[in-house]
Amino acid sequence: MQKKLMLRNTLSHALRLTLLLSIGLGSIGLWNTTAQDATEEPVVQPLQACITAITTSPAFVFVGQTAILNVSGSNFTATTQVRLLGVDPVLASAFIDSTRIQAAIPGDLAVGQYIVEVKDTANPLCPTPVTSSFEIRALPPPTTAPQPTIQPTAAPPPTDIPGTPNLLVRSFTASPSKIKPGDTVSFSVEVVNQGSRVAQRVSVSIDPGGKFIASGGQASVILPDIGVGGSFTFNISTTAASDTTGGAQPVGITFAYSDFSGQVYSSKGALTVEVETVAVASQVTLSRYLVNPNPAIPGEPVTITVLLTNTGNDMAQQVLVTVAADGILLAGPQGNSFPVGDIPAGGSASVDMPLIVSGSAKSGPQSQSISINYLQTGENKNINGSMTLDIAKITVPAPIMNLDSYSTGFDYLQPGQRFTLEITLKNIGDATATGLSVTFGSVESSGADPTPGAGSSTSVTPSTTFAPLGSGGTQFIGNVEADGEGITLNQEFIVSGSVDSGVFGLPITLIYSRPDGSSAQTKLSASLVVLVPPQIRITQSAPVPESVNLGDSITVSLEIANRGRKIVNFTNAVITTENAEVLDGAETYLGPVRNDDSTTLNATVIPSAEGEATITVTLNYTDDLNQPKTIEEIYTVQVNPAPPAIDFGPTPDFSQPLPGSEEPQIDNRDLLGRLLLGLLGLGS
Fold first, then answer.
1. Three-state SS for 124?
2. 565 and 525, same structural domain?
3. Using one digit for the tens of pLDDT, what is the confidence trace for 511-567?
4. Strand pairing partners for 119?
5. What are the beta bridge partners of residue 568?
6. Which residue range forms the structural domain that includes residue 208?
7. Whole-angstrom Cα distance, residue 273 to residue 244?
C-alpha cells in the first residue's frame, strides 16, 4: 500500500513538472518573440490556438443557490466567453489565466442538466465551442435521522505530502440581491479547498481598482485554516461606486494563504450582484459663503469664500465660478471668474474671491448674482445663483438744496397776468454747494455731468404755463454754505393766456458741485394757482331810476349773460338794501348758466326814508377749483320827499240829507200807473 502511494506521488510530481515545463517554455518562446518584435520589422502574429477540452467544477449546485463555476482548460484569453446552453445572457466571468476562468452561476436557474459552452469570440478560426456539463439539483428532503457520534481520534503525525492548497469559491449569496450605485452589498461566501494541502493563514480581500471597494473599514477578512476538501462560509461587504453601470456586475476577491512549509499562494474568485441602472449626472450647488469684512464697505476690497458641493453622482469637471458684472461687486485683482477644478460626486471645494464693493452700493442687504459653470461628461452645464451681502451705511458730506419758501403776491393768478416770483433757497446739507445755478424749467443732460461747460450738452424745457420775462430763465448764484440763512432771488413771469384753471407746477432746476468734484442736479417745483374768472355780463332790462319819491316802489330787473368758454355754476342771487326794504325777490335760485346763455333776475324794493337807498345784488357761484365765489352789483337811488297831499275841503256828512234833496211824495194812483207801464216795457 505504501509503495502504491509513493508511486502515485511520483507520477503526480512528474505530471506537474511536465506542465510547468510546458508553460515555462511557452512563456520563454513568447518572450523571445516579443523581444524579436522589438528589434526587427513588425510581423503578423499567429492566431491564438483553439481551446481544448474543458472541465468544470463543481459538478452541481442545489436550486436557488448562486455559485462560482470553475472552468479549467487551455488557451483561454480575456475574450473567452462562458454560457449555459439555453440560458441568456452570457455568464459574468473573470479571466484568471490561460487555463482557468471563473463564471457566476445565477440563483434563478431551474432544476436540470445544462451544457456549458466555452468559446473565444476573438478567434475566428475556432467557431465551434468546447462543451461540458453542469447540473442544478433539487434540495434533498430534510432528515431527522440521528447522526452517529464520531469520537475524535488522535491525529497521525504530519507527513510531507506533496501538493498545494487551492481555495475556490463554491457558492455565494448577495444581500440585498439588487443594489443601486453607491449602495453596500453583503456577500455570504462558501470557500472550498480543492488542493492537496491545508490552506493556512487564510485572508480574503476585495480586489482594488474596480467599481467595488471594501465597506466599513473592512480591508480584509481573516479565515481559519481550511483542510483538504474542507469548506468555510464567511461574510464580506463591499460598496459599489457611484458610476457603476447597471446589470450583473462581478466583484473580484483574492484569497491569500500558505501551506505548512510557509509557501505563499493566492487565488481569485468572482462574486456577482445585480446593479440597477441609475441616471448619472453631476449637480454643483452653492453650499455656503463667507464675507470678509462683514458688513462690506462701499468702494473697499472684500473677500468672499464660497463652498461648492457636488450633490450628483458624477464628476463635475473644470468648475468655474463667475461673479456677475452688473451687480454691487466689481472685479478684483484676479478678475471676476475663479476656477475651482474638478469636484467628485458627493465632494466639496472652496475658493476665495477677492473683489471690490461698488462705491454706489446702497446700504443694507443687497443681492449679487453668480454663475457656476462645469463640464459633465464633456457637456457644458451652467447654474445661476445669488448671494446676499450686508453693505455698511457710509455718510458722505454733501450739500442738499431745498426750496424754503416762494411767493407771487397774489392768492391766485389769472391768464395773461404778469407777476414776480420770489423764492428762497437753503442748503440743509453738511457741505457747501459750489457754483449754484438756478434754471426755471427742466434741464436734460446728454452726459453724466450736467454742469454747463463740463463737456456735456444740456437742453432746457421751460414751463408752458409761466414764461420768464426779462431773462432766459437761468440765474447764476455761486456758492451756498451749509446751514446758512439761504438766498432769495426774484424772477418775473407772465401767465399763458390760454391756460385753464388749475394748480400748476413751475419746475426749478438747481445745478451745483459736491465737495468731491462730482456734479449734482436737484429738481424742485413751485405750485402756483391759476384761476380763470367767469365772463359775466349783467344788463338792466328796466333801468333802475336814479331818484324816486318816498313811498314809490323800485323795480330791479336784470339779465345775467355768460360770455365765457365754460359753464358758470350759479347757486342763487341775494338782494340786500340800505334805507329800503325788499318786497319781492330777496333770494332767487339761478342754477348753472351755459356759455352763450343767460338768465333773468327780478325784485321789488321800496325806500324806507328820505335820503340815499342802496340796492346790492350778490350773485353766488362755484369757481373751477370748487371754491365759493360772488359777483356784486350795487345800485344807488336818491329818495325824495313825498309830494304834498291835495286839499279836498271838509268831509261831508252823508248822514244828513242835502238841501233841496227831499224826495217827492207819490200817491198810490201814480204808483200803480208806473207799475203797469213797467210791466209793459213802456216806462220805469
1. coil
2. no
3. 999 888 888 999 999 999 999 999 899 998 889 999 999 888 999 999 999 998 889
4. 81
5. 593
6. 167-275
7. 11
Q: Which of 130, 117, 39 has the alpha carbon at shortest distance from 84?
A: 117
3-state SS, residue 24 = helix
Closest by Cα among 191, 187, 189, 218 to 205: 218
Do 548 and 590 share a structural domain?
Answer: yes
Q: Yes or no: say if 458 and 442 are a contact pair by the CB < 8 Å rule.
A: no
For the residues of 469-533, what is the DSSP string, one character each?
Answer: ESS-SEEEEEEE-TTS--EEEEEEEEE-TTPPSEEEEEEEEEEEE-TTS-EEEEEEEEEEEE---
For 604, the grid coordinates are: 321789488
Cα(588)–Cα(602) distance, integer angstroms: 9
Place of cell 473580484: 252
- 387, amino acid identity: M
Report residue 633 as a C-alpha cell.
352789483
Task: Say how many C-beta atoms besides its own lie within 10 A of residue 75's C-beta.
Answer: 16
Q: Is the pLDDT of residue 352 over 90?
A: yes
Question: CA dihedral in degrees (392, 396, 399, 405; nearest 10)?
Answer: 30
Same domain flag for 544 and 526: no
Sequence-distant (6+) residues with CB within 8 A of 648 are none
CATH no. for residue 192?
Answer: 2.60.40.10
- Domain co-membership, 343 together with 459: no
State whether 370 and 413 are in the same domain. no
- Decide: 230 and 257 in contact? Cβ < 8 Å: no
Sign of the alpha-carbon dihedral angle for 231, 235, 236, 238: positive
Q: Is residue 161 part of a domain?
A: no
pLDDT of residue 5 exceeding 50, the answer is: no
Q: How many domains does the chain have?
A: 4
Question: Could you tell me the sign of the dihedral formed by the alpha carbons of 486, 488, 489, 494, in that order?
Answer: positive
- Residue 451: pLDDT band (50, 70, 90) is low
> Which residue type, as a one-letter code, is found at position 345?
A
Residue type, 265: Y
**How far apart, in whole angstroms, are the C-alpha atoms of residue 635 and residue 580?**
12
| Amino acid symbol at 628 | P
Per DSSP, helices labelled H in 271-359 are none
Q: Of 530, 547, 577, which residue sits at a domain end?
A: 530
Q: How far apart are CA 560 and CA 617, in angstroms?
A: 12
Beta strand 628-640 pairing with 547-549: parallel
Task: Provide the 3-class DSSP secondary structure of residue 602.
Answer: strand
For 313, other C-beta atoms within 10 Å of its C-beta total 20
What is the chain's mean pLDDT, rounded?
Answer: 82
Torsion of CA 68, 73, 78, 81, to 10 degrees: -60
pLDDT at position 648 is 65
Is this prediction's pTM over 0.90? no
pLDDT at position 654, please? 62
Q: How many Cα atoms occupy the beta-carbon half-sphere of 403 within 13 Å?
A: 19
**Residue at a domain's end among 511, 530, 549:** 530
The residue written with cell numbers 468544470 in the block is 56
Rounded average pLDDT over 141-153? 56
Integer Rg of the chain from CA: 63
Between 21 and 247, name the one with better pLDDT.
247
What is the structure's pLDDT at 295?
92
Which residues have C-beta within 8 Å of that of residue 638, sequence separation ≥ 6? 546, 547, 548, 611, 612, 613
